[in-house]
Amino acid sequence: MAGGARLKGKLMANLFLGLDCSTQSLSAIVIDHDARQIVYNRSLNFDQSLPHYGTINGTLRSPDPLVVHSPPLMWIEALDMLFAQMKDDGVPLGEVRAISGSGQQHGSVYLNKRASNALARLRPNRPLAENLQGVFSRDTAPIWMDSSTGIECAEIRSALGGLTATARKTGSDAFERFTGPQIRKFYKTEPDHYANTASIALVSSFLASVIAGRIAPIDHGDGAGMNLMDIHRKVWHPQALKVTAPQLRKKLPPLAPSSKVIGNVSACLSRRYGFNRGVKALVWSGDNPCSMIGLGLIREGAMAISLGTSDTLFGYMRRCRMDERGEGHVFGAPTGDYMALGCFKNGSLARERIRDLYHLDWNGFNQALADTPPGNHGAILLPWFEPEIVPRVSRPGIHRFLVNVKDARTKPEILRDPDPRRDCRAVVEAQMMSMRLHSRWMKLRPKQIHATGGASANTAILQIMADVFRCPVARTEVAKSAALGAALRAVHGWLAHSGRKPRWQDVVAGFTDPIPGSQIRPNANSAKVYDKLVESYAACERDAIGRL
Ligand code: XUL
User: Fold this and answer.
1) Closest C-alpha residue for ligand 1 atom 5
2) I want to staple 475 with a disulfide (CB 3.0 to 4.6 A). Which of 130, 173, 518, 536 is the partner?
């Protein structure tokens, strides 16, 4: 178990539990909403706590590096373990009013015809994993890191009328990690097991099913990450289902808004852990939609950039706008509106590769940023160490250019020699300019960017972010934004279910403020440099992609 537990000695409270099943860990956050306080916060790391599943960073290695799966039984055992830990830590689980959760997006769990009964008859005196070990028609679940479905993406995209048509219909072009292409591959490669599948769940809806003791709906946020949901009408898209796999409609649960109450927490969990019988089990959502709430992104102009292994840029949209180039994604937001998201694979991965290339530590890297001017005298680096998602680049490689900062029309020169100081600045500037360029379709116009993720602790990087986006940047503690978002969704759903009309701004108030004093303002002169340089950067990208 990692993370600290914090409990306030209080007689009786309205507590809400948010869980987050991410790639590497399961986290729980309990909030006392009346007191506007997080009262408990704990994580369980899969590799460390459940070594018998043999995972590395929560995933199972396969001989094919494109194939990445996780064992769904491990998530269930983790749930049992975390609840037991909460009880040991003295969390008054009897005071929890509602539970919701967040799951890594896109991953799929395949259940056989025994699942429904097994969920309804969970025996409280047996571990959850023992109760459920016979319910799978496929032992492992392909997760979002799996990129083995290139052929299936091409088939689905073509059957739906091409890239733009696929994005217009489902919110995204067909992507390898999305659930539809994954289901199609399963049907093609293991037709018998596909035929034995009675129900397909997402990571989120699977764990919601265990909490509620019945097959749970898929919410509009996570449903949009499947290439199977009509993004406008928020119903299953009949053509998308048809071109993905036969009999698919029968195997999918209903779709539901993120605020839907599925029912009460299962009798088994009440008996095992002391939840009251009336505790409401809400639909779960994806980690990104939950983070929208955990970061307080509930109105136009709200945008966040998470600097993690991959960098992710996402923001709130009242109306559904599409990326006609098919690079970005539109998901449902838990508020009932939409969210736009771009996933830039070479995030910390690329920053660390440059740092390590020159044997620097972070101080050395930051010194290089301090020693070089905004705009880097026109030196640009495209850091595609790994195949990139945005823009789509399937062949990894890094490309260095020297551009004429005064005239974007001059053809960029190719730079051959590495240079430590120049490359450190170039990698960060490239990431920020790429995010600016490839998020134009979102039309977000942020008033402030919420910077989150490990690298957001680096103020030198955040200054470049503020300058490139011409926008103040403030840091928010992200580590738990998905679990916090789930707990806040539980509050909203519970209030709505009890007949009140909760407003999102009242629900999130007091929980989502940026870290005090963390705001960084853009420097007007540097911002001017980037306004020009971003066009040269776009030309370099076109040049490199053209040559690939
Ligand atoms: C989003 C995506 C990831 C996962 C991982 O499209 O693939 O952010 O949700 O948690």
Assistant:
1) 104
2) 518
Q: How far apart are CA 13 and CA 100, in angstroms?
A: 18
Q: Tokens 């009460």: give the residue.
A: 264
Residue range 369-375: mean pLDDT, rounded: 97
Report the predicted TM-score, pTM, of the whole model to 2 decimal places.
Answer: 0.92
In this prediction, residues 475-485 reach a mean pLDDT of: 82
Residue 9's CB: how many other CB atoms inside 10 A? 5
Which of 287, 329, 478, 480 best tests ligand 1's pocket when mutated (most atoms within 8 Å of CB)? 287
In the predicted structure, residue 336 carries a pLDDT above the cut 70: yes
Whether 245 and 253 have beta carbons less than 8 Å apart is answered as: no
Question: What is the pLDDT at residue 3?
Answer: 42
Q: Omega of the bond prior to 391 within 30 degrees of 0, cis?
A: yes
Nearest to 231 by CA among 122, 302, 321, 127: 321
Is residue 307 within 8 Å of residue 455, measured between CB atoms? yes
Residues touching ligand 1 (Cβ under 6 Å) are 22, 104-106, 144, 177, 225, 286-288, 312, 329, 343
Q: What is the dihedral of CA 369, 375, 381, 385, to 10 degrees?
A: 50
CA–CA separation, 136 and 38 (whole Å): 36
Give every strand in the sheet of 413-414, ordered side by side.
379-384, 397-402, 413-414
Report which protein residue has its CA nearest ligand 1's atom 7. 144
Assess whether pLDDT exceeds 50 at residue 2. Answer: no
**Cβ proximity of 217 and 255 under 8 Å:** yes
Confidence of residue 12 (pLDDT cuts 50, 70, 90): low
| For range 414-418, the mean pLDDT | 90
